[in-house]
Amino acid sequence: MPDYLQKILTAKVYDVAEESALDPLRELSARVGASLWLKREDQQPVFSYKLRGAYNKMAHLSRAERDRGVLAASAGNHAQGVALAAQKMSCKATIVMPETTPQIKVAAVAGRGAQVVLAGDSFSDAYEHAMVLQRQTGAVFIHPYDDPDVIAGAGTVGMEILRQHQDEISAIFVPIGGGGLIAGVSAYVKQVRPDIEVIGVQPVDSDAMAQSLNAGKRVTLDNVGLFADGVAVKLVGEETFRLAQEYVDEIVLCDTDEICAAIKDVFVDTRSILEPAGALAVAGAKRWIETHGVPAAACIAIASGANMNFDRLRFVAERAELGESREAIFAVSIPERPGSFRAFCEIIGRRAITEFNYRYADPEVAHIFVGIEVRDRQEKERLLADFAAERIEARDLSDDEMAKLHIRHLVGGHAPQVKNERLYRFEFPERPGALLNFLSKMSAGWNISLFHYRNHGADYGRVLAGIQVPPADNGAFGTFLKNLGYAYVEETGNPAYTMFLGKAG
Q1: Which positions are annotated as active-site residues?
Q2: Which residues, at least 6 apart from 391, have a Cβ–Cβ distance to it below 8 Å?
Q3: What pTM, to 2 d.p., does this model score?
Q4: Crossing angle for the helix pair 238-247 and 180-192, to the nearest 10 degrees
Q5: What are residue 14's phi and psi, to 5 degrees?
Q6: 459 and 411, same domain (yes or no)
């Protein structure tokens, strides 16, 4: 078996890699009550640790092997490492990437002179296509994780951590895809400091290593989640699995909301934005502390990469509050009569409302989709109890994926029973109680038949409201709008309203 301690100590990585910083996460540490540190592999020239293993492997190739060119399969970060190494060594490189790879990673690889080939939906699909190309071209395949030299290159991350933090360490948290990083880190740490726990972290929908360790053999997943694309691997490596069996203490699984919350946590502390796989270790550290309690010594999470697709930030921001249990989503049923909205808001009190969706559908009962800011899970449970005490039916949707992805953005469709509906967009200063103030100014004689509010994190709140105004009240309603004090635009004639929300026909 390879002597990994020797291979890591003699790895050739620093021609291209930097000794990345080990920074304290002060804000997050204060919140969870533990000493949390972040190993900043997001600061590497390719914004990921992957160049360590790629360069170390290629540095061990002969001149003849390099002349044949190199070939790699990667979801993005390993691809950039191989491309950089090939550029440094004046070597031809072909990279096979999944078609789901964020464009920022594809462009970065091509920008370093490598030829990019897109194939399949996951790393496993790209790997199979790369094997076909390898047989056709004779190029040297640079495996992203299941190679001793690649593992040793990744292991230099663990070497640096122990050199940089010589005080006590309780645990090191490592993201796992194919297993190269945790194999290298654990092989070094457990031989030098066996008292330190090495804990792997995987998404709940890409947990090939966790399932393999539980089964005692490598398990191939039928499908993998693609949100954390950097760890979307169906089958872990043979050598990485062997090392994980020997050295890894535990695997923690995290869901998408927890990963989004971790991205936000790192941003708050560092003003840097990690990719989902890059924030995975932070999410795992938080979950582990919640489960095991606050450790006596430091916990270190490896930020493995920061190649974030900008278009994902909207989704990340929306789901981060759920991941921190700082937002609760409810489906609430209240009597369909004027004034019910106001009574409902009075129960919520001074809590901030993040979203409020309603469309008239039933003459007896109103169904509302509402998001409410809470401090923690306990406050959510207290709010449910308050609803129950007032005989208001409320269902917790905070863990309902369909509700979070789709239902929250829908307002309800046509309402054939609604008469004399007028549609308005309103803007008002965004502050606690502003929504309740808006509702309190509505006349009891005008029924709200549609309501959509969503907190956009801006200075002004935006509401779309349908209001039933009998023709005889048009004058009074016009006076109401003038005295309301909020900017408004009537949208009753908007084609999108008439097509999808207005009275059919």
Answers
A1: 50, 304
A2: none
A3: 0.77
A4: 30
A5: -85, 5
A6: yes
